């Protein structure tokens, strides 16, 4: 039977996070109105920088998980956590002062098993960062409403520990898209909805370079393909989807060239042209990643 959150475990997976983990742990240490029984667990996933030294100096629990991947790291935290509720942050986020209090508040309702906080981007300074903000790729409300797989993004979310254990934890065979899969299995198992905690605000550092954005898009496409292969009873790829995608990609690929002409004569703004260029970059990389994984999986 679900209980009110009398205790909370904050679990943070990290890989080479020396540049950000200290600031994150400092922000957690100064949380306002957090539950009295709050533990912080950092799961190192094979860092070769100063991450572990920084975590040790912060006086929180440090665990080491040799199996690579955020799912394996979160499962390690899940096995060791003692809290009724497990709150998750990524190592490159920075929570505001009442993040934890706001994130666990929905669990006062015993029907709530999963909650998502609001994630905002640091002020963007590069084209890649501006694209992520303008496209809404990281908007929590969008993730929670996405069909057929609404989900709570793992960089800022909380789950009842007993519910997470009951569904078998995180799928370690999914290097990306593991939060989508986790949310889908939990929502299906308990016939529940994802609670939204808009006051649980955390700031996130988005990918800053074109190459980092391209790699992220490719990995997200791979994750989407794995979900298609994993849940054929929920979603299937067919000829109709292929035709629609071909038409959509054609427009996105050609649009920057068309807009460049308009930009040269002052009819198209810098922002619109930049967005179109990055939308093409993201779309090409995402669907390339999707195609590689889906074709491989379909042949098995």
Features:
300 residues; 8-stranded mixed sheet; alpha/beta; 11 helices; Spore Coat Polysaccharide Biosynthesis Protein SpsA, Chain A
Detailed description of the structure:
The structure is a single chain. This protein is an alpha/beta fold. The protein folds into two domains: 7-208, Spore Coat Polysaccharide Biosynthesis Protein SpsA, Chain A (Alpha-Beta Complex), CATH 3.90.550.10; 211-298. It contains eleven helices and eight strands. The chain has helices at residues 21-29, 51-57, 70-80, 99-104, 127-135, 140-145, 161-166, 178-190, 210-230, 239-264, 270-298; strands at residues 7-14, 37-44, 61-64, 85-89, 93-95, 114-121, 156-160, 195-204. The chain has an eight-stranded mixed beta sheet with strand order 3-2-1-4-7-6-8-5, sandwiched between helices. The mean pLDDT is 96.
Annotate the secondary structure layout.
Elements: E1 7-14, H1 21-29, E2 37-44, H2 51-57, E3 61-64, H3 70-80, E4 85-89, E5 93-95, H4 99-104, E6 114-121, H5 127-135, H6 140-145, E7 156-160, H7 161-166, H8 178-190, E8 195-204, H9 210-230, H10 239-264, H11 270-298
Parallel strand pairs: 1-2, 1-4, 2-3, 6-8
Antiparallel strand pairs: 4-7, 5-8, 6-7
Tally of distinct domains: 2
The low-confidence parts are: none
Q: Supply Rg.
A: 20 Å
Looking across the biggest beta sheet, what order are the strands in? 3-2-1-4-7-6-8-5
Distance between the termini: 41 Å
CATH topology of the largest domain: Spore Coat Polysaccharide Biosynthesis Protein SpsA, Chain A
Q: What summary fits the major beta sheet?
A: 8 strands, mixed
- How would you name the CATH homologous superfamily of the largest domain? Spore Coat Polysaccharide Biosynthesis Protein SpsA, Chain A
User: H/E element string?
Assistant: EHEHEHEEHEHHEHHEHHH
General form = globular
The structure class reads alpha/beta
**With helices defined by DSSP (H or I, 4 residues minimum), what is the helix count?**
11
Please bin the fraction of helical residues: 40-55%
Strand content: 15-25%
């Amino acid at each position: 039977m679900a209980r009110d959150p009398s205790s909370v475990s904050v679990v943070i997976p990290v890989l080479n996070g020396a540049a950000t983990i200290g600031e994150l742990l400092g922000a957690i240490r100064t949380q306002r109105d957090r539950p009295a029984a709050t533990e912080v667990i950092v799961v190192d996933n094979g860092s070769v920088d100063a991450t572990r030294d920084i975590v040790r100096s912060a006086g929180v629990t440090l665990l080491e998980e040799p199996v690579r991947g955020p799912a394996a790291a979160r499962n390690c935290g899940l096995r060791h956590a003692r809290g009724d509720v497990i709150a998750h942050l990524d190592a490159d986020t920075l929570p505001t002062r009442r993040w934890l209090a706001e994130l666990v508040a929905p669990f006062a309702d015993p029907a709530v098993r999963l909650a998502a906080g609001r994630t905002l981007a640091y002020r963007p300074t590069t084209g890649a960062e501006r694209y992520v903000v303008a496209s809404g790729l990281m908007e929590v409300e969008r993730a929670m409403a996405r069909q057929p797989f609404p989900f709570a993004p793992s960089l800022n979310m909380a789950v009842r520990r007993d519910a997470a254990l009951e569904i078998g934890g995180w799928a370690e065979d999914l290097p990306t898209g593991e939060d989508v899969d986790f949310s889908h299995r939990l929502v299906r198992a308990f016939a529940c909805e994802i609670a939204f905690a808009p006051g649980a605000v955390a700031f996130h550092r988005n990918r800053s370079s074109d190459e980092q954005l391209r790699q992220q898009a490719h990995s997200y496409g791979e994750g989407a393909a794995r979900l298609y292969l994993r849940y054929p009873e929920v979603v299937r790829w067919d000829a109709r989807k292929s035709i629609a995608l071909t038409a959509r990609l054609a427009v996105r690929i050609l649009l920057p060239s068309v807009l460049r002409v308009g930009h040269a004569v002052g009819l198209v703004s810098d922002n619109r042209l930049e967005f179109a260029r990055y939308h093409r970059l993201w779309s090409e990389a995402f669907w390339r990643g999707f195609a590689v994984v889906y074709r491989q999986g379909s042949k098995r």
